[in-house]
Amino acid sequence: MNELCKRHLFKLGPLFFFLIFLLGNLHAEDSLTLQVESKLLEVSREIPGLSFVLEVEEKEKDLSIFSLTKSAQKGFWISDTLLDFRSATHLRDTVFSLSGIKGEISFLIFGKKSEKEAIHEFLDNLSRNELLMADVSSKSNGFEEGELHSLASKVNFSPFYGLKTKILVDTKMVLLVSTFILFLAASVILVTIMYVVKKRKKKRDSLTMKFKELSFEPISNLLFEHSLQELQSFDRTKFESFFPVDHLKDNLFKDVMILEIISLNKNMKGEFKTKLKTIYRKLGLDAHSIQKLSSKKWDVITSGIVEINEMDVVEAVEKVKKFAKSENFYVRSNAVATLLNISNDPELKVLVDQDFPLSRWQQMVYFRIIKFINNSQEKVKVDLLFESKNESVRVFGYKLVRYLGLFEMLEILVNKYKNASILEKLEMIKCFDAFSFQDSLNLLHRDLATADKGLFLGIVAVLKNIGNPISEVIMLEKLKSDLDFESKKAVMQALHVLNPDLLEEWSSNAKDIEVQQIFNHLIDPVLSHV
Amino acid sequence: MYNLLLDILVEIFGILFLVYSFSVISFYLIMTVLSALEMRDHLKKNKFADYRDVITSPVTPGISVIAPAYNEGQNIVQNAKSLLTLHYGKFEVIIVNDGSKDDTLEKMVESFSLVKTNYAYHKHVETGKIRGVYKSTNPSFAKLTLVDKENGGKADALNAGINLAANEILACIDVDCILSSDSLTRMVRPFMEETNRKVIAVGGVIGVANNCQVKDGTVTEYRVPDTLLGRFQVIEYFRAFLMGRMAWTRINGLMLISGAFGFFNKELVLKVGGYFPKTVGEDMELVVRMRRYMEETGQKYKVGFVPDPLCWTEVPESENILSKQRNRWMRGTIETLQLHQKVKLNPKYGILGMVSYPYWSVFEKGGPVIEMTGFLYTLLMIFTGDISALYFVGLFCLMYVFSVMISAFSILFEGVAYNNYKDRSDLNKLIKTVLLEPFLIHPKIVLWGLKGHWHFIKGKGGWGEMIRTGFKKAEDKKKIDIPIQL
User: Fold this and answer.
1) What ipTM does this complex have?
2) Labelling B178: which of A65, A258, A301, B287 has CA 20 to 30 A away?
3) Selected residue with higher pLDDT from B398 and B482
4) Cβ–Cβ of A177/B394 closer than 8 Å?
């Protein structure tokens, strides 16, 4: 279509729609008039409340012969109020046939001139309430009853309303049927999908079982019947000759083999681990794991990262690095764990640079790896974590001091304590406690005045182990103040350990019931280990 | 005039029932899709979770397992031993004897060498009178605490346990439940994983233990129950736990964590005042109150759900007991919704106010009433001859086929996720139950639900009267007007 045509179409388009709209309106108007008039003609008697007036526009002729009178409106003749619509139409037709002028019937509801819509509604209401019934003609259009019967018996029966029409006319039915189909289709689709998924899973599971059996024996043979030197001297073709050739290119088979190797790797030690890694690499499974990092599915990427981690695929470090700040928790956690494990980074830079808060789950996993590195390889520089901008990383750093027994870091903690957040302080004081670090006492005494209940309880717990006579005095003073039950119990427990006589003396004079209860608890031999 | 009015009423009711039916179906379809997505994600995530470290790591949080016991003398020792052997590092078991009339206390004392102690604790939450706190003289049972108190109901007993709990996570369970040995390690994972939101509670799946083979506290072989009622509950539990709760978890709209197996953040439970003992729906009420607290204080939070099979219970197979259970559940639902009307359609409460609460009000609480009204309406229409047979049959078929489809989906869903019921004859029995359920069991469930409504109105059983007539006591009101303790 050329440009000119398009432009014409754009111009004519709105006009076309306007015409359609007008035609529609006219059609609606005509159809309403027809509906009203046909309904009125069905009723021969008067309709209560409804009357009619014929109005004829004629400026020259005298129409009084039709019993019309001049209207107040110039150039109009009107009839008397007529109660029967048939009389009104009869008068209109008479005027038209004798004078050639077409009059118009106006409708009055309780004497008030009304529009056709209103009349239509009025008649509808009367019909619905069964106040207006169409006349039942006693005539039989020229047929006698007997003739009609004999005629009817010759004509095949066909219902006036077909089922199709009935369904389509009933809006509720249309709604019901369409929704029925929609819902049914949706539920059938869902059940079918689930059925297909189940079948596929079953098939995959049985294939996995089959592949496990197929790969277990060759891996075991390679592992136990060949030395490491032999394995290292084999080329890929030689390795492949141990496995079923048909399946070696199957990704599922590769995945199953990797899982088998990883599982054995977790349960074996020493040379066997090296052998397993050799098998993994010589079969080109490392490339399969690295390939997974290019996937768009997070679970595939994560499984690739896990495999790289387990099999120490050091050359993939750069590729894993880009996932260390992934939005996805599982991708990020495993990427960081992998980098800690295989990137030879005792400065724990990947952790220091973490923007996301570390969850406890991540801390648990990272701690296992860091502990392993610290014990078997190079000493990790935990103090670098204290400089991270991420509070959860700093807190994790303090935890590591405690878990890894890095007492040489305590001085750093003392220096940092003053400006640390409550969360950090809580971890620091646990470190002081773990190493019975007396040098922290001054800091702890000062912070006993804290308004934070958690920190207060934490400090009291430390003082229970490392407190001195000054601590006893401060805590006793605290006991005299308005402490809640939990704090009171913690302080009394601490005093009971530090100076039981002092506590006993004070408790015997105290009138507080809670103090008595706690004291009885503390001296109960069964509860001594609780 | 009356004819016109009747016509209008019939028309309005017809449309309302139609809209209701379609809404139910739409909700179920949406839930089906959401639960499938959530389950897919859960199974994927599970592949990368190594639970070995959880037991020994110093990073994992401590758990206080609280189990109320009332007249459990027959099995209490076995159940307590089973709890003490759970695989987890830092945990304690608090059994609360809620004024049992049998020999629960004596058996516990005898079996675990328990002695009454001067255990000092603070009543963070008000409870009935505590008669004694027992600890064992045998260090092997150092993790066990027995609280003996006067009878006050399950919520009151749980509150007594909460007052004594020393760890940061509370595991509130039914003492007769069978827990998998790794249940604590798995349930604690959502609490440990979240980085940006506070996990306030985690719910778990309850499996049906009837007819199953149990070895060392774990179900080793799954078999469906022999009775139709039992089998119906197997399917119902699939629908409720694997589909319903998974779907709500997807949109963080979970409002109910089963009282038989629920994990809570202790700090928050104490902040909101513990369980509300004057409702029979204490489990749902606590979750709603905790969520309200988080919404009102503007904190990001999550209610988690672990769909792994970790807990099993015997379900009632007699109509009498099941009817009482359903009656209680219905009253619990009504009471909770009544207590937290403030949440209703309140955008301030997010998903809780705009989706979860309205759903529970219309479909869970209102369901039996609407279904019964619909049934009576249909009868009336048949009686007056005003019903279109086609319309009636169409709607009936739609509801039947749809209910069968959803149940079939739930069975397939379980098959894909866990495939516990491996025996083909078991599957056949379940399918038969699916086909019969709408005719033989659903009407009874509706009736029992209606009975729950009636008992709530009459104030029968539990604490219906108090909830119905409003809070007369200031302390009752205080419980619900959440105290903000920042």
Assistant:
1) 0.87
2) B287
3) B398
4) yes
